[in-house]
User: Fold Solute carrier organic anion transporter family member from Podarcis lilfordi.
Amino acid sequence: MKVAESGNVNGAVVETKAADLSKEEEGPKELTARTKTSCCKGLKAFLAALAFTYFSKVFSGAMMKSSFTQMERRFGISSSTAGFMDGSFELGNLLVIAFVSYFGAKFHRPRVIALGCFIMSLGSFLTAMPHFFMGYYKYETLSRGSENSTSNVSPCLLNQTVPESPGMSVSGCAKEVVSYAWIYVLMGNLLRGIGETPITPLGISYLDDFSREEDTPFYIGCLHTIGMIGPMAGFLLGSLLARLYVDIGFVDLDTVTITPTDSRWVGAWWLGFLIAGVFNLISGIPFCFLPKSLDKEGTSDPEKKKLESHADESHIQKPESQRGARFSKLKEFFTSLKRTLGNRMFFMLLCSSLLQFSSFIGYLTYSPKYIEQQYGQPASRSNFVTAVTAIPAVCLGIFLGGFIMKKYKIGIVAATKMAYVLSFLAFVISLFYLIVGCENRTVAGLTVSYDGQAVAQGATPLSSACNLNCNCATNQWDPVCGEDGMTYVSPCFAGCKAVTGSRKDTVFQNCSCIEKGDSGLRNSSAVLGECPRTDSCSRNFIYYAVIKTVASFFYALGGTPFYMIMIR
Assistant:
């Protein structure tokens, strides 16, 4: 074990001198010192602090995932750009992981973890900053009485040209980057990745060094189980914030004409990062007061003193060689890296974990957006479903994995088989996702013709005979739902010639493209927003949630054995 390497020189010298005292003088003092160590600075205290840190870091990550589509709309960026922005977290982690894992173990590990928490806090605050200097969010709408609207044009202007407002000249379906403020989010995410780096390698190694070997899997299971409460809290908070308008507290909400179910809605994504920053800041404070090393659980005092005496001698013999210590440590680092990557078993495990975590991160990132696009659910509901289905299953799986390994004393070979079988089972269950999807939305002129017939993408024109004389703007997405259950690109493309009501209660009347029932008569009405999905799609969404829960459970059940393989 590395107790000798982690010992404090001054503490070892004091302990050596104290050994010469009489037992009468030593007894009460030693008892008091042990009581303080076990209560305030013991392994359980470190485990509790590390568990809250895990909660904080994954809470921040969950806020990023739950705000993915919100930031896409707010910054006017594509999904690929948003994916690059989200991937900066892994980039920051990759930049320093090798150096932190190797050199961090040679320093005061709890304080290195504290520094990482403070960096994560800074990154979270930086991520929220664009909201405060971007100005108010503006969206397009043809409804009346909206101070937030960028265009207030009548729906169908027969034989007239559509007047352009300054807001319409750069808006529409062909998105352009309206702001480069997303770079602040990228930099904040990069800082979060750098700050998160020391938590897992140094925290797990600290636990492994000072706990009983048979207790380590259980500790890790408890750690990750408590840590998984973070994503649950993050997605639940993300669900709540997705229902709040992005400029809440800055604008009159009565003037907002869109609802959370509208594809243009942007929630208060920035609030979550401010809360995450506070959590990260608080989580780093306890590590500033934890010791560099602890007593090994189950180690007797004579063995401990023998190890510390050896550590003292090894430290005393090295002062003359401190000049070349930096260069020798750097040389040792590359030698150790070469030796580690040369281990075929470790290299295969590394490749396996790379593929596994890459797919997991991609799935977790785009899962809320997939639910929104595939099943027509609002961002708030997609975040809520993720929080109450998959994450509790993951918590249960991780906890049971650690409990099973401790109860049956599973070794490395058996843990490898267990991780493989459970991962393969989770993969097989995930294949059922392919049969529970939904059909494309019925959008007139895009996915179906104006008669409701399915056509190939791009095979039908956006205009039809019913709206040909309306001179509709082709770069505008202001969807309305007609009485026929079909979504139209805008009230103009629905052929609507009259408007009643205002704001969220706006109703478009006399729409020449909307057929009323089976009568064949047209000139029906439409309301703001897209039409809801069919009942069969709603049922498939329930099946999707069940499959996701079961697959997540088996995936997490093999997570603890996989971690034990990594650290052993």
Notes: The longest helix spans residues 344-375.
